Amino acid sequence: MPRPLCTRCQRPLAHCLCPLIPSLPSRASVLILQHPSEAGHALNTARLAALGLQRAELWVGECFEELAGVLDAHGTGARLLFPGEGARILMEPWPQTEQTSLLVVPDGTWRKARKLLYLNPRLAELPRVALPQGLQSRYRVRKAPVEGALSTIEAIVHALSVLDAPLRFDALLQPFDALIEGQIQAMGRDTYERNHALRDESSA
């Protein structure tokens, strides 16, 4: 019999993360576009991000018919968080005059995220912003596919911490850290130390 799930965070009731999920204000709105393959993922940090931010929405799908209207409503204040040619590295806050700022974040593997851009041409037309190099993920139980790769929730925290400075969003990572710690406990601390911690030290 499947374990009962929390209807909010979608975690097993015995491991519900809701008490750790904050309710953080932000000046920028966040729209997370999640590929369907990610919706059932055990981690699903995009859902945690959407629950923890007051001005965030999570849409699941491949083609988003409502997207054009949302982008039109935000005018020149919309940005796509995705690396690529012409992407501006996030180094300074959004101008205070941009009250309709919108950060659009694709959620999926690199291949699936690129597919979202292909299927939704308005996404590809948006000005792109990217995170600076050298950031380290806190996801300690899986090797990043490329150097500097972050989970969706980590990327959003880093981006908003720059765009909405001096506001801070570190509290958004509390349920993420608890989720990782739960995975470590499930595999056994000895197994983690043997297979992951030593690997991290050797690559440092």
Automatic annotation (TrEMBL):
The keyword tRNA processing applies. Keywords: S-adenosyl-L-methionine, Signal, Transferase, tRNA processing. Residues 2-188 form the DTW domain. Residues 1-28 form the signal peptide. Pfam families: DTW (PF03942). InterPro entries: DTW (IPR005636), DTWD2/TAPT (IPR039262). The keyword Signal applies. SMART domains: DTW. Its EC number is 2.5.1.25. Belongs to the TDD superfamily. DTWD2 family. This is tRNA-uridine aminocarboxypropyltransferase. It comes from Stutzerimonas azotifigens. The lineage of its organism: Bacteria, Pseudomonadati, Pseudomonadota, Gammaproteobacteria, Pseudomonadales.
